[in-house]
Amino acid sequence: MSRPARFSEDQILDASRGLVVESGPAALTMTAVAGLLGAPSGSLYHRFSGRDTLAAALWIRAVRRFQSGYLGELSNPDPLTAALGAAGHVVSWSRDNLGDARLLLLLRGGDLVNGTWPQALRDENLRLQRRLSDAIARLQGAFGASDPESRHRVTFAVIDAPYAAVRPALLAGLPPPESADTLVAQTVEHILDPLVAANRTGGVP
């Protein structure tokens, strides 16, 4: 009978995340993670085939965690409520999940994986990207954003603006301040007001 694993996959990924957000992607090695956990490095290879598989799995886990709430907000049938909820989720999720937020918002998947993504994880990453793009496109359609400027206005409201609001704190290793919630909501409403007004009157923003 094989012995039960000493460390769970989440524990290994948590240790990996700590190395990355504190010291950068180059600090992520199988030996460093094993040392942090107090485990022989060979034991990690029973869970992950190598460093890049570990890095890709770390990235995918963070994306899934973020998207589970973000896409839920975007699915609200009222576009303004959806936009406000999604933008607000970036702030609140970053506050409640500081490690994953620093990983996602200060890096890119390509920054983590040195070589080639494992095929299955690369496919999953592309699927998650398409899932987000499709949700944003549906929100743009709900706002009647049919031209590039209007579509960009929606994207800016639900991605760029909340990202800019949380980035300074995340760079400092701190959770976003409570004031960011109100500021982001006010910014989103201002950015989207032309589209809301156009929908109300049936005009063009």
What does this protein structure show overall?
The chain has 205 residues and is mainly alpha-helical. The longest helix has 24 residues, at 51-74. The protein has a domain at 62-201. It contains ten helices and no strands. The mean pLDDT is 92. The protein starts with 8 loop residues before the first helix and ends with a helix. It is elongated and about 65 Å long.
Concise account of the structure shown:
With 205 residues, the protein is mostly helical. It is built from 10 helices and no strands. The protein has a domain of 140 residues.
In DSSP terms (H or I, runs of 4 or more residues), the helix count works out at 10
Question: What is the percent of helical residues?
Answer: over 70%
Could you give the order of the helices and strands? HHHHHHHHHH
What general form does the structure show? elongated
Q: Which regions contain 5 or more consecutive residues with pLDDT less than 50?
A: none
Beta strands, count: 0
